[in-house]
């Protein structure tokens, strides 16, 4: 499909720079069969049914942005993408063109060398020791560039993690989960709504714009995920499955392509555009996404392109807050 079909006007001042405080005070646009309804995320228990199953992504964002210097001088910035094992990480770095295989890089308390360069502009970095324990000191929260130029501060260390975050590995937050608080979870439980967890370590592909004219030419970066057996069992017995965010949905639909939900571990590079046949997810709670992004393509596939363009036009008129720290919408197939 033509990428320009997924374009729309988004005033820059609607891109949220901080999350709602408290988190469950965020607005929710209910995209229902009978029209659009302006609500709050606190209304979620009344919008769902007893026996519905909410599936959350329990990934935890790592401080994946590194600032340092190259041997011989010159500043360097690296955004970690994914763990390659044996203390190697794939990363996007600047200035990439000046880097050569074998170049040494120095970060706070860490050193690395360029082990390989990819055709997609990425590099493989081989670190001198186990990286994750060192990132608390060496790394910064990898905010998207649309939020304060990507420059994180002390608040973002907490703000950019969900209530469910426990498994380190993401370089972007599963942002629909940012709206949930213990109070909202208690209200959902009281309404008879069940929960389950999956893990999808969100990669830097979340940040990457679609630079081609046709969706068929866009390549998604692979991301590692896991569906536990208990979650698979819960999904197979649920009345309706409500995915909390596009990351959980992408993982569930990856597994469901080959049959009933099952325990699964592996990588997915699934790219969901209109025409996709959904098998696992019945409802989707998701934030508002940017024009021409793979995430807007996904919600258009889920709820219909015309319907989503109308919903987003309403959201712009009513000044909903967009993107990672913004408000959310509830979609039904």
Describe the SSE topology.
Blueprint: E1 27-32, E2 35-40, H1 44-47, E3 53-57, E4 59-61, E5 65-70, E6 75-85, E7 88-94, E8 104-107, E9 110-117, E10 122-127, H2 132-138, E11 139-140, H3 156-159, E12 167-170, H4 182-190, E13 194-200, E14 223-227, H5 229-237, E15 241-244, H6 246-256, E16 264-268, E17 283-287, H7 294-303, H8 305-317, E18 328-332
Describe this structure in words.
The protein is built from 8 helices and 18 strands. With about 325 residues, the protein is an alpha+beta fold. The protein has 2 domains: about 5-60 and about 155-330, QueA-like, CATH 3.40.1780; about 65-140, Thrombin, subunit H, CATH 2.40.10.240. Strands 2-1-18-17-15-3-13-14-16 form a 9-stranded mixed sheet. Strands 5-6-7-10-9-8 form a 6-stranded antiparallel barrel. Strands 4-12 form a two-stranded parallel sheet. Strand 8 (about 105) and strand 9 (about 110-115) form a beta hairpin. The mean pLDDT is about 95.
Can you give keywords for this protein?
333 residues, alpha+beta, QueA-like, Thrombin, subunit H, 2 domains, nine-stranded mixed sheet, 18 strands
What is the chain-wise order of helices and strands? EEHEEEEEEEEHEHEHEEHEHEEHHE
| Name of the CATH architecture of the largest domain | 3-Layer(aba) Sandwich
Question: Which value, in Å, is the CA radius of gyration?
Answer: 20 Å
- The mean pLDDT is 94
By secondary-structure content and strand pairing, the structural class works out as: alpha+beta
**Estimated helix fraction:** 10-25%
**CATH first level of the largest domain:** Alpha Beta
Q: How many helices does DSSP assign?
A: 8
Shape: globular
Number of strands: 18
CATH homologous superfamily identity of the largest domain: QueA-like
Instruction: Give the N-to-C terminal Cα separation.
Output: 20 Å
**Total separate domains:** 2
* Residue share in β-strands: 25-35%
